[in-house]
Design goal:
With 306 residues, this protein is an alpha/beta fold. It is globular, with a radius of gyration of 19 Å. It has an eight-stranded parallel beta sheet with strand order 1-8-7-6-5-4-3-2. Pfam families: DHDPS (PF00701). This is Dihydrodipicolinate synthase family protein.
């Protein structure tokens, strides 16, 4: 999932009705909002989607719904590895690929136990690839159930199979990103950075784009960064955007994804605050912080004129 244009692949939310059922109508609206903002792909059925709180059937239904709404406008990836043996994970990988997505994402922390060696992890990855012939894949260094960060050598090995086209990096370390980019030469592969603190530096180093939770608040802003990161005439504006994202990182992570859903409500999206995941209370203090965040963003948006 790489091209000459840097791109933004948002980690999608799952809208719920207040009774806890999935709100497919609002999922359509949300998908269309992402597309309208200029994203170059979508990551459905991910941690932001509350994938661990969805049933297997719901994971497939949500992903298929997104595929149907997008109708080929941009590539779609979705998680395919959950609990169970490697054979069981391979079986669901095949099922979710059957929804029509472009690549199945493998959760690094579910392909080996936290106490397992790197050798066990690498062997399990190759076993899964062998059990899913022909299916394009990618990796996500998801923090749940634990974060297993790929080394540059591991990523090089996996990409060299010809099966890995995507990597969502959550190492939070620009030097690790540069190391990965230095050894992976496949033009079909793209590394997408989740950490906005070094977003611009990562893009300049060769990352294919960004894939971050901030895009669930202001997707147009992340697209703007990808479009303008290397424009010397916009250096001051880029610095202002970087400061805005860094200074508000705590606000956007506090009781997430509830805060993101509330922010989308303020944009007019009819999305409930309901989440199946226990993330803490959406207190008046948290609400006020998001209100202030929106005010700051409105000012920034007027200055950037996008």
């Amino acid at each position: 999932m790489n091209n000459s244009k840097k791109g933004f692949i948002p980690v999608m939310l799952t809208p719920f009705n207040n009774d806890g059922s999935i709100d497919y109508k609002t999922l359509t609206d949300l998908t269309e909002l992402y597309l309208k903002s200029g994203v170059t792909g979508l990551f459905a059925n991910c941690l932001s989607s509350e994938m661990f709180e969805l049933s297997e059937t719901e994971r497939l239904q949500v992903t298929k719904h997104v595929v149907d709404v997008v109708a080929g406008q941009v590539p779609i990836v979705a998680t395919g590895t959950f609990e169970g043996t490697i054979a069981e994970q391979a079986d669901f990988t095949k099922k979710i690929y059957g929804t029509g997505i472009d690549a199945v994402i493998l959760i690094s922390g579910l392909l080996a136990k936290e106490t397992d060696s790197d050798a066990v992890f690498v062997d399990n990855v190759h076993q899964l690839l062998d059990l899913t012939p022909g299916i394009p894949t990618g990796f996500y260094e998801c923090p749940v159930p634990y974060k297993r960060v790929l080394t540059a050598a591991q990523l090089e090995d996996f990409v060299n199979t010809g099966r890995v086209i995507y990597h969502k990096d959550t190492s939070l370390d620009i030097n690790q990103i540069k190391a990965k980019l230095s050894v992976v030469k496949n033009p079909d592969f793209g590394l997408y950075d989740a950490y906005m603190v070094h977003a611009i530096e990562s893009l300049k180093a060769g990352s294919a784009g960004l894939s971050c939770i901030q895009g669930n608040f202001f997707p147009e802003l992340i697209v703007w960064i990808c479009d303008n990161y290397n424009d010397a005439s916009k250096a001051d504006e880029l610095a202002a955007v970087q400061r805005f994202l860094e200074s508000n990182m705590g606000v956007m992570h506090d009781v997430y994804p509830v805060v993101a859903k509330y922010a989308l409500q303020k944009r007019g999206l009819p999305i409930s605050n309901f989440t199946r995941r226990e993330v803490g209370d959406f207190t008046p203090i948290v609400k006020y912080a998001v209100d202030q965040l929106q005010t700051e963003y409105d000012m920034l948006q007027s200055e950037l004129s996008f």
